[in-house]
## 1
Amino acid sequence: MCRLLAYIGSNIQLDTLLYKPEHSLIVQSYQPKEMTAGILNADGFGLGWYHSQKQDLPYIYKHTLPIWSDINLPQLSRYVESSCVLGYVRSATPGLPVDLVNCQPFTDNNLMFIHNGYIDKFRYTLYRPIRNLLNDYTYQAIHGTTDSEHIFALIISQLQDNPNHDLETALKSSIKQLEELANKDEVYVSANLILADGDRIVASRFANCEPQPTLYWLRDDPMYPSGVILASEPMFKGNWNSCPKSSIITVGKNLEVNIQSIY
């Protein structure tokens, strides 16, 4: 299980998210409290953000090192400011290689994606069934071997094949497709997913059986006024809210948090 972080709100420096909280994403990489599988997140990391002053494609920084070992990140995170940020530390599924092509966030045009969870025995279970659902563009756009990138491809395929779908609808439809495939063959799937386009964050908390990975949200904390944070684990003491199981969570520029059931 990986650990996730998402922020949307007023511009902040990345280091205020990565280094200042007492239980930051960096601490969660070596001392997580609520992982349902694994004990460390040492198989690489990734950060994604949008330019604070102009419309542009997202910027990505990723590495196969554990996040605590990257000596460049403290300086980079002091320099970068953004109003929309995704962060991720990886605990690789056994059998899947630790290399840059498998590190998140994954992107498609202005969309970023991160995933906490896994598909059990992915290469032997849902690998082929998921690929059979993809259009040509998303099929050919997959460069790595992870279940995460295939789930992202499923979402992009939904968006392209259904131009009237918004992010929430595409995410919900993709999760239902995953659930149908998984339940048919009695495969465990957990899919805490976060999508961002610079203006909105859309996330899910989902698994087709217990345990369901944790996901929390927090708004307008004194440490982060005019901002909403989503995280796998609370990063500091505060008024954290647990996202309901089997739900879609949306946060827009107005910072209103909307929650709907997947079903």
Note: The chain has a mean pLDDT of 95.
## 2
Amino acid sequence: MIQHILRRTLRSLKENFSLNLVATGVIGATVLLAGVYLSALQTLDRVVESWDRDAHVSAYFQPEIEVELRFATKDQITARQEVATVSYVSEEDAAAYLSERVEEVGPILEELGPEVLPASLEITLSQGHATPAEIQAFVDSIDGPPFEHVDYGQDWVQRFHTFLTLLRGLGLVLGVLISLAAIFLVGNTMHLVAYARRAELETMKLVGATWGFTALPFALEGCVQGLIGGGMGLLGVYALHQVLVARLEDALALALAGAELSFLGAGWAVLLLGASVLLGVCGCLWSVTRFWRKAP
């Protein structure tokens, strides 16, 4: 029985090579799109994680606060569990820093005096306390005297987190739609294969062959299509990464942000390959089921 099923599967793959090639190409394209999306999503996650590790808060002192109180405040904040480092920036240091980076501002600061810029504490939070909600809670806890203003550049990171969540949701919807379209195309392609063998299948049904015995060769055929198509799709993702994504990494300088564009991990590759096999099998079984119900 096993030999018979394998022989029928190999014969179908050979006799319907063009149709099987189309089905395999559809599966490969599906895996390619999914792999590119997952690679981009992993990179975005790494970028956000690197920004979270560098969560930075600037607390600006009120002008009348004495230097002794400033350093006492610095010691109090340094002792907090969620704080990694704290550095004091005087008015003179702030003016020098700004003049160094914006040369046109130097003469203006010399005329107005260094006290035009406030002294501040530059606070870096530890990695375990760097989510947007935790940063906001920390800012709320220190906002007020002796500080005139507390600023942190994580508002846009929070918006980016929201955007990333939306992107994941859209990616999930897109993935489902692509999978359904692939199942439809593979199923219709395999329906043509089943139609080409309709006389054989009708005869098997008339002599009492079960649906499982009839459908198993098609399922094996879909499994082969899924393996080949999934492998082609993964090779396409890897080739795209080598040719295009490495250049984008240099152009966008993402490595400077503490993240890098990388190929899918082994877990995702195995998952995509398994999904491609499932896609091929489901498409084939769907086509056989449609034909089986219509056959006399």
Note: The chain has a mean pLDDT of 77.
## 3
Amino acid sequence: MKRLLSLFCAVLSVCAASLTVQADAPEPSVSAESALLLEPSTGTVLYEKNADRRLPMASTTKIMTALTVLESLPLDRTVTIPPEACGVEGSGIGLVPGEELTVEDLIWAVLLESANDASTAAAIAVSGSVGAFADRMNEKAREFGLTDTHFVNPHGLDDEEHYTTARELAVIASRAIENEDFRRMVSTVRHEIPKSGGTRYLINHNRLLRECPDVTGIKTGFTKRSGRCLVTSAEKDGVTLIAVTLNDPDDWQDHRAMFDAAFPRCHRITLAESGGVSFPVPCPGSESGAVRAVNREGLTGLFFDEVPEIRTVVETKRLLFPPVEPGDVIGRVTYRTPEGDIVGSLDLYAEEAVPAPDPPRSLLDRLMGRG
């Protein structure tokens, strides 16, 4: 019986490598003091330059500010603007003490207009003070596993103890774009929020949103001390990349160059369509003598520079005993490289029901013709 219940393994196919890219493609020339290009789903770094150097981050701070607020307060919460948030140095939207805006209004102002007053108001709404909010930001940085990032305010105005690295800022951005509201906001070019007796018109400072169709966000920054700072995300053919530059006099061009060099290296391959894997599992009691094991979800794999040969391996039970219900997991399909590395896997589900057999009748029942 143990043999019958053991897993049956079948190599269904071997797919030859079909895509390659020039391995000697030149790296982009980036003028930033520090830079990094990241594919966030795999954590693959496609380009880096001084990526672990601690530097000021200016208003790219607001990526963490917005994420912290989004995870702390409902968007429709009304915030009464405190005096401490008004007249903050640098960019702002002219907040007035006592006016009321929603949390969502404030985050729009933070991300599009890079408003320091809105950042301060949102921070106080979450934690009661700028310092307490910075503590919360630092706690979140530790949760992300960051060791070279420290915040002292929610807006990024200069402070010796306010710093990050290109590598860790890319991690923050990759976590932020997992938030649907954050993605929606940073990809928006224009938005309106109210003000007393009128409307505030917000314009996203990230000009690449208007110039590059693949760019989907994220945040600009500048102070005299930090220089130009920029974090962008871009998506093409199902691949998302995040670029970070710190102290970069030519950031717009550098981000274009990094994306142009990296996207041709990325290949997202369909490994399985939904329902594309179907394998019979012997089952006494089923009409055909077998129940088909089928995948419900599709699966893709992301490869860099070249696509290796992929082995498709199906594992199921040798024999399936009723009862069986549709949706029971009765197998698994795994995709491996020739070296044995797992690219991905999917559960296989029973496609049909097979009822349990009727209990055997007793000798007396059979003699009496009962049952």
Note: Residues 2-18+269-350 form a domain with the Peptidoglycan synthesis regulatory factor (PBP3), Domain 2 fold (CATH 2.60.410).
